[in-house]
Each structure stands twice: as structure tokens, then as C-alpha cells.
Protein: Transcription attenuation protein MtrB
Amino acid sequence: MEPTTGDYIVVKAKDQGVQVIGLTRGHDTRFHHTEKLDKNEVLICQFTDHTSAIKIRGKAIVMTKFGTVETDQ
Structure:
């Protein structure tokens, strides 16, 4: 098994109940993992062979190697 070396993002919740949803890779995109964050919690996410996209619902700060984005509510 080869180590996964996908990019990472950091999500910091600005409100209670921010949802971070991992979406699968392949012909049919599906949800495969969901996390709910409390205010000020931080989650570090990685893109992998199975995760092609990450969806964020709620007010959060998202940090990537390309810069920082704040979601609007």
C-alpha cells in the first residue's frame, strides 16, 4: 500500500454546527464522510484516492496552500 500524499485543507468553524462533507471520486459522486464542528473547532482534511471534493456548510474559515477563504452565511 502506497502512502497517500494528497493536498490538505484546514477548516475552522466560526459558528456552531459547521458541516464538512467528503465527496467520493469516480463516475458517481457520493457523500462518504461527514463531520460537524463546534465554534472554533479546527479540522484538517486531506484529498485522497477516495476523496475528490470537500463541501462545507456554515460559517467557516478554509485555509489551503492557495490562500484563505471565508464562507458567507
